[in-house]
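Morning. Coffee machine broken again, so started the prediction first thing and wrote up yesterday's gels while waiting. Chain of 258 residues, entered below exactly as on the submission form.
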Amino acid sequence: DPAQGLKAANRAAELDATHPIVLAALALTLQKNGFMAEALEIWESGLDIWRDEPYWQAKAASLASEIGDLPAAVEHWEHAVELEPNNLDFMAELSKVYMEDGQSTRAMDLLESATTLDDSRADLWYLLSQANRHANRLQHALGCAEKACSMDSGAVQPLLLCGEISLQMGNPDLALEFAQKALASQPANEAAVLFQVKVFEWNDKPEEGLNLLEKSITPDSSVMMVLAYTRLVFKQRGAQAALPMLKKIAETDPDEVG
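Came back before lunch.
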């Protein structure tokens, strides 16, 4: 019972508000029950006592990110990395908040260090590609994304990132190659379908995108897929053809139509 758990954690905190297990239990219980800001306060009160505990720094950083407190997230992840400078997971998370904060250069420097420590992790190369892309270093970004692809051949996201960067570089033919590889790898992946549709439109071939969507849409497809299909039907075949689908979306997902 979450309510009983919260009461028990509060009683324990009243008895010993400085014990790490008590504070951790209280913070986790608050998080579980949706009291995110209050949980962050508990994690940070613990850090007043155990500032050099990397686990606590990481917990506080993750929670700060979740509630949108970016300065706190940066501060806590930085301290966690200071405490464990070779922890690649900490470095990856810090790079993400750096990018979210617009600090792409710091993210690149950090990820360069991370890939020097271990050059076999596809996720680090993927993040380094994103950081380079944020800094508009597109050729470097593409190289890093391709490296991520080579290390995780079954993953779609690195292929889609390669494709997006290729479009930014003004190379839709290369983008289409990556789109086709992504779709061949996971034919039911909606992100892969939607990206290939995007490339078809970029190349002034919306009918091919419409054909792909018609083949790909199922009764379980997301509203994003249905909206993309409806938009292309409207564009290619007119309002009358799109109207029944718009009515159906309005019934099931009125916010998307409004």
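The mean pLDDT is 87. Going to sketch it on the whiteboard this afternoon.
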